[in-house]
Write a structure and sequence with these properties.
It is a single chain. With 231 residues, the protein is α+β, with helices and mostly antiparallel strands. It folds into two domains: 102 residues, Immunoglobulin-like, CATH 2.60.40.10; 109 residues, Beta Complex (Ferric Hydroxamate Uptake Protein, Chain A, domain 1), CATH 2.170.130. Helix content is 16%, strand content 35%. It contains four helices and 15 strands. The strands form four sheets. Strands 2, 3, 5, 6 and 7 form a five-stranded antiparallel beta sheet that branches. Strands 9-10-14-15-13 form a five-stranded mixed beta sheet. β5 and β6 form a beta hairpin. The longest helix is centred in the first third of the chain and has 16 residues.
């Protein structure tokens, strides 16, 4: 009798605790794989950010452990315009959703560009990922916060920058802590075209003036800006 009762409770509980998933692939309009792009899941009700992941080396992504509801996806990557998917529903009749996304390069606004050496947008090093913002050859408009939203693994929740799976990272400018009392306000106010590169450092070394053992986001300003500040 106890066994039957337990089985009955289990059947009643499963639908309440069911969790769903969404997966897919991201390419550009030329059919080329886009890796390390941010894929962010939003709930339609209130445009609430639910979870975010990055695409792998094959452009694939998967977001798991999602509750039922109506959702849409956003794909974001430096050098590309943001893409928003159509709304889809996850429930007991549709436990997993698969969608392929495509993003288009941003329109280039530079009148003339002399390319001396091709610098990749992303550089994966032993202890960090380097995003060469100034070398993307596309317009970098808006604030530093707007750029951060397109850096792999970065999320902006309620106007504050966080890192998927790691919470709030330490944010540095040119390897140093900032004098601003509110770093989030600084990110919203600093022009994005001041930044040469952004480093996502998972294993911080002793050269960084940061407390704690968590990840570090270091924004390096362009040499011309640092030189003018020193005068």
């Amino acid at each position: 009798m106890k066994t039957i009762y337990f089985a009955f409770l289990l059947c009643c509980t499963l639908p309440l605790s069911a969790q769903y998933s969404v997966s897919g692939n991201l390419k550009n309009n030329q059919g080329e794989i886009v890796e390390f792009a941010n894929i962010v899941l939003y709930e339609v009700a209130g445009d609430k950010l639910v979870k975010g992941v990055t695409t792998d080396a094959s452009g694939n992504f998967i977001i798991e452990k999602i509750k039922s509801g109506e959702f849409y996806l956003k794909a974001m990557m430096l050098g590309y315009t943001d893409f928003q998917s159509e709304v889809f529903t996850l429930n007991e009749n549709n436990t997993s959703h698969k969608v392929d996304l495509a993003i288009e390069p941003e329109a280039q606004t530079l009148d003339a560009v002399e390319v001396v050496a091709k610098v990749p947008l992303l550089e994966q090093r032993a202890d960090r990922m380097v995003v060469n913002v100034a070398k993307s050859l596309t317009s970098v408009s808006g604030s530093l916060m707007e750029i951060m939203k397109k850096v792999p693994g970065m999320l902006v929740v309620n106007g504050r920058l966080s890192m998927a799976g790691n919470g709030n990272p330490t944010i540095l400018i040119d390897g140093r802590t900032t004098q601003y009392m509110d770093i989030q306000s600084m990110l919203r106010e600093m022009p994005g075209d001041n930044i040469e590169r952004i480093e996502v450092i998972h294993q911080p070394g002793a050269e960084f003036e940061a407390s704690g053992n968590g990840p570090i986001i270091n924004s390096a300003q362009e040499e011309v800006n640092r030189a003018s500040e020193g005068n």
